[in-house]
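Researcher: Go.
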Amino acid sequence: DSSNVDSVRNRGLSILQVCLHSCAADVSRFPAILEFVRKEIMSVIVQNAVTHDAQRLSLVLGCLYPLSSNMYTYLKPQLHLIYNSVMLRSLEAKGVPYDVQELMIETLTDWFRCPGVVSGLFCNYDCDPFCSNLFERFLKYLCKNVFPAEGPVTSLHRRCLEALLAALGDVSNRCLGGWTVSAQPRSHIAEQLLANKRRKKRCLLAAEHFNRDPKKGMQYLQSVGLVSNPAGASELAEFFRYTPNIDKVMLGQYLGEREDFNIEVLKEFAQRFDFKGMPIDEALRTFLSTFMLPGEAQKIDRIVETFSEEFFRQENGLFKSPSAAHVLTFSIIMLNTDQHNRRECSIFRELGSFQTQ
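Model: Structure:
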């Protein structure tokens, strides 16, 4: 009975909400419990957050409130996923039920009234190159919906105004010295945050230039000082490895080129992965998750060879030689491709590297 399942699920979320409200402030003192919250409880919350059922969403947001107000420094990636992929996506999408939007705005207002939450959004997410600009996007949404474009003012507009005032109140208290977040001088913190924000903006713009034209992307990187002129392989590998929004197809094409400099960048790029303790299939999946393998056989061969050499270097003793790791890597790719896309498998057979040893 689906209704019974929903009833049991909501009851479980209610119990979890009570538990979190009772002990969230003390969880960070117990590493084992904190790890359980990170892996198990946050997984349950994320799974149940993707819903337009107002009752369940209310329970999920009720569970999130004590976590975001007491443990946001320990749950950064998990909260980023919920803020970005659940809350903002629902608020910015069309056709979301009115009661769901109101519920999320009420939750935002409660969060923003907690000391340091708003400044924490800006410091931990907007100034982090790997995260979305959550503070900026939340405030843009609130400013856009404070007054109606047409028609009368509704309760949703009033709730947006309350949330915006709560956010500004937190910023005001921080500016006036109401919250203490660091022993460092305020001027030093502000300069560091602004520098991080500027660098993030430059990196994202550089990624856009690279996605359109790699040569122009290199020129932009040099013009804004992100890499030296001429660019070093280590600098470019660092940029490719740690900058989000780079087109995976373009990156795969660049790393697979046969020019000596591109091969050097590829080797430096592979060295920025930690494969220690990983099975080779998991290491390969991690490596290939950052770019798309090109379609040319020679480019694939260069990339796989570089991965195999780096995996052999980090896991010395697991294979007799880099070539053995090379053959096994190719067999994994071929079997996976043959299972999911038989047409593409002919590309790998052209390489002639897959042979019994």
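Model: The longest helix spans residues 186-212.
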